[in-house]
Design goal:
It is a single chain. By secondary structure, the protein is an alpha+beta fold. 36% of the residues lie in helices and 10% in strands. Helix 1 packs across helix 2. It is elongated and about 50 Å long.
Length: 78
Amino acid sequence: MFIYFFVILWKTRQRSFEVVDRGCCGTGVVEVAVLCNKLSPLCPDVTKYLYWDSLHLTEKGYSIVVDHALEDMMNILV
């Protein structure tokens, strides 16, 4: 799974991520899971961020990982 994550990082400019060094929630540096909550400030546009918080990818980030993984798995199965 890590190979797909690195593919995302390598192609971030092509995938239109503008922010890849911090998360959308809170400061984007230390907040993770419960520290990222309804009281935390959010970025103005989550689609521009690779990370939701300091650990987890955004929906767009995970979508790219899954697309690459499924494509590779289908090539192996077919």
